[in-house]
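new request in #modeling-help
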Amino acid sequence: MTPLRAFALLVAAILVPAPAALRAQQPATHVGEEGVYEIASQLRCVVCQNLSVADSPSEMAQQMRAIIRERLAAGETPDQVVRYFIERYGEWILLAPRRRGFTLLVWILPPLALLAGLGVVALRLRKWTRRTPAGRADGVVDAAMRERIRRELETGP
Amino acid sequence: MSRPWRWLIPLSAVPVLVLLAYGFRLNPRDVPSPLISRPAPGFALTGFDDSTVSLAALRGKVVVLNFWASWCYPACYEEAPVLERGWRTYRDRGAVVVGIDIQDKVEAAQKFIRDFTLSFPNAQDVTGKVSIDYGVYGVPETFFIDRGGRIRAKHVGAVTEDVFRTHVERLLAEPG
């Protein structure tokens, strides 16, 4: 065995069991603060106005964060934790409406309206820019109108 | 501007007006609960008198589960005598009132119970777990649970004599 190969084996022996050991060390019980925040920021604080459970200092929001932490620690996925709250409070608890079913309209309609508006503006602009030179050549200001403009310019307001 | 487009502009306001007309007719107090007709979440709490207050022990009875707090003035103060009277009237007919005090101080809650001489089982939900299990937004909220342990109605705001009687009589009339 060359020294290099021995070294590689040694490195492998140290590295390979490491992830397994790490996994064993932290079963489902380790819950990071950001994991709790991730879920809490999606939920509406039920006793507040426009605040998420993550941002509210209220007692209810604190209790909800504790429940999120507990459920994650018990091995639930973030989806399962969110579903727990939806089952009790309805989809109202979600700060952002879901991107499916009826609430999908909320996501689709504004961009559609914007596109439609831009379309209308584009069409109008094309019409206006085409009409202007033609209008000038038309000579729509007749003699009587020209006379009136001259008079009003001289007399002032 | 071309003709067909002109009347489309005021017309586009119609769906918005319809939506507003619908929205303003809704009662903002009627918060729909997804829990109606679902099994009532179980709980076991230690009562203010150190007895155990548990839902499982009340299976077979109609349960009026009331979430309250001593700082919830005036609604909780209005309904406390109603609940106590209801409890005394219906306890022999198979209905019980259970009070759960949330987001409160123990001393204040105990004073509230003394002041209204409440005699039905009452417990404090210190961790908030029970109230969140029931999807409670605020106080007072009252759940009417049938003999089979299902939530059949939710009342937001002070319970009146009428509300109490209507729900309890209806659930008592159902075969156990």
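bot summary: Residues 103-155 of chain A form one domain.
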